[in-house]
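To: structure desk
From: M.T.
Subject: fold request, one chain
Message: Could you run this one when you get a chance? Sequence is below, nothing fancy, just the single chain.
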Amino acid sequence: MTITIEPIKIKQSTYLLIPKNIVQMIDFDDSSKISLVVKNDENKCTLEYHISSKS
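Reply: Done. Structure tokens follow.
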């Protein structure tokens, strides 16, 4: 599945908001811990999110 997300700039930071339907589909909430892994190769950059429950 591919979705297009427009970045949002607030002051000097840029954010990628997660659409509500995606949040519901992957079932995480405010108590979840999310890690981001950035994978870079010659042709593309991939953002990979890992979600776990907060301990």
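Reply (cont.): The chain has a mean pLDDT of 86. Let me know if you need anything else for the meeting.
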